[in-house]
Amino acid sequence: MTSYQDAAQANQQVWIDLRSDTVTRPTAAMREAMANAEVGDDVYGDDPTVNELQARVAKLLGKQAGLFVASGTQSNLCALLAHCQRGDELLVGDCYHVHRYEAGGVSVLGGVMMEALATDHRGMMQPAAITKAVKPDDPHCPISRLLCLENTVSGHAHDVASIAGLAKAGRDSGLAVHLDGARLMNASVKLGVPARQLVEAVDSVSLCLSKGLGTPAGSVLVGSAEFIARARRMRKLVGGGMRQVGILAAAGLYALEHHIDRLADDHVAAHRLADQLGQIAKVTVNADLVETNMVFMQLPEGAADPLRAHLAGRGILLGTGDRTIRLVTHLDIDFLAIDQFTAEIADFFG
After folding, report:
1. Which residue segments constitute the domains of the chain, with CATH numbers given?
2. Residues near 239 by Cβ (< 8 Å), separated by ≥ 6?
3. How far apart are CA 208 and CA 192, in angstroms?
4. pLDDT of 131 above 50
5. Euclidean distance between the first and final Cα of the chain, in Å?
6. Which residues contact 53 (CB under 8 A, 6 or more apart)?
7. Residue 10 has pLDDT above 90, yes or no
8. What angle (nearest 5°) sits at the alpha carbon of residue 80, between those of residues 204 and 94?
């Protein structure tokens, strides 16, 4: 059974959910902003709230234009389809979301090949590996067209120099550069660097609003005006045109104004979580690897499923995994929740 089914069977309300920061619920103030949003038909470009959000994110990230879409996966897909043609190839880190967790959409729908490059324990590729992977001008090979980066990667924040070095390796080989910034603002807050500096060296960026920023849905893709015009066509192609969607865009505007700086609270909570778990026998956590809002908890073999069932019966949800389980702090996880969670873990292991 899933964790939700376990909790339902035990007739428990879910009140601590560490599976992801995507589970956050809009605050009362965000709901009020959504209820009061001015709306129009976004396919016609008539929704003023969407237009404001697109312009706001483009300015935040130092790009010319933006496009509001339903999800981070759709944002990445529209970007990759706008950058590449059928038979082209993109280079991407072997653990990145575009490669592992987006159903191979760019290959299925766009005929674009992906070559996955090795990453280290922080999700970093090597510039030399990018240069080496670019294909020669040979009819036997696909055309290397795009480099895909990501920030953060499994909670690790990549700094300006790291992103710039990878982007330079791609650009020097004739590649465009896209960055999946699903948790880019976590990196910005962690590093104390404006987000626009982190993405200055890349051509396009996808910023997710429904993770740590706490909106119910939506991402914004940014880049040059010409690129966004192509991406808008790709959004239509994949069925992503939306109408009076200013009610969601209003949540995004609220998040940009009120939920960026508070990401630091999630990072503090993650360190508290790691420190407390590290004191429990049979649980292993490398607290030195905790940078933003993710903690990776290692368990004894065979303990994960019984632990999930134990916690679900108490209204606590864990993500998937056997020996290693990812824990993600977010807007709905306070210190009380952290303390209760670690107490339950300690109780389970006796």
Report:
1. 3-25+262-348 (3.90.1150.10), 37-258 (3.40.640.10)
2. none
3. 19
4. yes
5. 24
6. 66, 68, 220, 249, 252, 253, 256
7. no
8. 95
